[in-house]
Amino acid sequence: MSSPRVAITRALPDAERTAEALRARGAEPIVAPLLEIAPYAFDTDLGGVQALLFTSANGVRAAAQALQERALPLLAVGDATANAARDAGFRDVRSANGDVRALSELAASSLEARKGALLYLSGADVAADLANLLQAAGFRTARRIVYEARVVSALPAAYTQPLDIIVFHSARAAHAFVGFGAPNAQQLTAACLSQAVADAAAQSASWARIVVATTPQEEALWRATFSGQNSPAGASA
User: Fold this and answer.
1) How far is it, in rounded angstroms, from Cα 223 to Cα 39?
2) Rounded to whole angstroms, how far apart are CA atoms 132 and 234?
3) Which of 23, 31, 51, 148 has the fewest CB within 10 Å, making it most exposed?
4) Averaged over 184-198, what is the pLDDT?
5) Gap between the terminal Cα atoms of the chain
6) Can you list the domains of the chain with their CATH numbers?
7) What pLDDT is recorded for position 34?
8) What distances in angstroms separate CA 227 from CA 9, 49, 219, 221, 224, one per listed residue?
9) How far is 73 from 151, CA to CA, in rounded Å?
10) Nearest to 213, CA basis, from 181, 183, 170, 154
11) Contact 229/236 with Cβ under 8 angstroms?
């Protein structure tokens, strides 16, 4: 049986890391980003801030270009984001190993509201309102946008070639594919990191099948994709 050809929609450099994971699974990765990362200028004043929070490795990398501070506690939504923070030189890195709600729970269990504000450094588009969750837990919270994930100007040629699976790490990438007309979707599997991503992929597109990770982590995504868990075409699991 030939190796499944898997298109990776996420932006570089994360797409290359995903490609390595897919090769280890015996798949043939096709790096064809639908998004590109554009850093933003942002207010770097950290006065009164007790901790930094990130929900993506892209956010860490964009922020690290402008921030000199590396000693403040940094809370990351998952291990990939935490690893990017360590690579950037942050010294006190804590991973929630989950989703945005898990990140807010990590903040509540490891930080004290009286010790200062929390600064959420994010992309222009976010899937969940972390700031509201933190404020509900009693923290003063600010959000600063440090990058934007922009849709590429044209659909990469890889999507008109024979494929088996398209991997979506974000709803934005799924919306982008649908916006380009979702070529050949009815013959493909949409592998989605979360239910929100699956919902975006299913909008105005019919798929051979849609698989959804049980937790928003790549390992769970690969288990769902390569173990045959699926939902009916055009629906979500």
Assistant:
1) 33
2) 32
3) 23
4) 96
5) 27
6) 5-34+152-226 (3.40.50.10090), 38-149 (3.40.50.10090)
7) 98
8) 21, 44, 12, 10, 6
9) 32
10) 170
11) no
Neighbours of 48 (CB within 10 A): 11
Record the tokens describing residue 214, joined without a space.
Answer: 């049980």
pLDDT in tens, 112-169: 999 999 999 999 998 789 999 999 999 999 999 999 999 999 999 999 999 999 999 9
- Residue type at 46 in one-letter notation: L
HEC secondary structure over the chain: CCCCEEEECCCCCHHHHHHHHHHHCCCEEEECCCEEEEECCCCCCCCCEEEEEECCHHHHHHHHHHCCCCCCCEEECCHHHHHHHHHCCCCCEEECCCCHHHHHHHHHHHCCHHHCEEEEEEECCCCCCHHHHHHHCCCCEEEEEEEEEEECCCCCHHHHCCCCEEEECCHHHHHHHHHCCCCCHHHCEEEECCHHHHHHHHCCCCCCEEEECCCCCHHHHHHHHHCCCCECCCCCC
pLDDT digits (tens, 9 = 90+) for 18-42: 999 999 999 999 999 999 999 999 9
Please identify which residue in the block is written with the tokens 């990351």: 76
Backbone angles phi, psi at 106, to 5 degrees: -65, -40
> What's the whole-model pTM score?
0.90
